[in-house]
Amino acid sequence: MMVKGKIFPGVGKITRLVLYLQLFAFFSFLIGMGIWSFRLQEKKLNQTNQFWQQTLVLLRLHKLQKKAESVQANYSRIDIELPGISTASADFFLSQYRAAIRNKELRRAAYFIEVADRQSKAILAQQNLIIPKEVQRLEKSLDDNLREGEEIFAVVDDIKQDLERLRKRQSSLAKLKQLRRLMFVLAGRLAQRRQEMAEAEKKIVVVKSDLRVYMYENDKLIHTIPVSLGRQDHETRSGEFKILDKIEKAWGYYQIWMPYWMGIYFAGSSENGFHGIPWDSAGVRYWEKDIGKNNVTYGCIMADDKEMRRLYNWAEVGTKVIIQD
User: Fold this and answer.
1) Phi-psi group of 23: left, alpha or beta (phi > 0 → left; psi -120 to 50 → alpha; rest → beta)
2) How does DSSP classify residue 325?
3) Closest Cα partner for 277 from 294, 297, 295, 263?
4) Domains delineated in the chain
């Protein structure tokens, strides 16, 4: 018969105590194992969470890095030498992005790199509008400088050919850079040529039988110009002279305008010299078709306006002039 309230009826007190202790130990073990198992699972869960958190961070960092590479690619296409182009604002946000990355502030980094990306794209869009205008401006400047180079007998044929090839290409940053390169090369050529002209001993030789003017620097022939000289009753005088004066537009004794006048000797009350195609007050041009063919002037040496302008710009007052039969 079981005694009410006792777990182990019919067992002595000591034995029952031992059984209680064993039972307590067993349940303690079970509880301990449960707690250990729970903590182990919790640790594994935490490790799993940390792994995914780290993975997520790495993915976000990779995404930010890709975005930063895209911004840098945009930057490589920006030409800050273009008028109106500035990267100051985008530079600020890019520097803030880098600081946020160093401080592991990924949200701030994502914001800053996104703003920098938008601004770099906006700069590129603005640049694409400016490039065609800048290309047009440089082409015109090159044309003007090439004309000047031809006027002073600089070596510019290769640059002229390069420019003609570039004209056939569409406006782009690469074309713009090539035009800038030509500008630098041409500027160097012009500076060198001006220095050569300043240091050279110049001489003008007129050969009446050839109807030609020969231009010399340090006794080296640099250019030849066809001319017309004085007619039979007003022959151009032979001898050695110097350029006495230079007047870009002179009014002549015979009531005509003479462009690029350079006087060389006096003839009675007037002066004879070099000039371009003359015209009267009504705008009528004289003797244009006789250059290099017939002597039609009143003693002067007449050249085509383009050639005369080159001679006028090349020579100085005091340049030696030799007129030979």
Assistant:
1) alpha
2) -
3) 297
4) 13-125 (no CATH), 127-199 (no CATH), 202-324 (2.40.440.10)
Reported pTM? 0.70
Sign of CA dihedral 283, 284, 286, 288: positive
Average pLDDT over every residue of 142-163: 93
pLDDT in tens, 52-85: 666 777 788 888 889 889 988 998 899 999 988 9
39 pLDDT more than 80 = no
What percent of the chain stands above pLDDT 90?
63
> Shortest CA distance to 243 belongs to which of 153, 151, 323, 315?
315
Residue 200 to residue 212: CA distance in whole angstroms:
22
Question: Following CA atoms 210, 211, 215, 219 in sequence, which dihedral angle do they give, to the nearest 10 degrees?
Answer: 20
Cα–Cα nearest to 203, from 188, 193, 218: 218
**Residues in Cβ contact with 22 at an 8 Å cutoff, skipping those fewer than 6 apart:** none
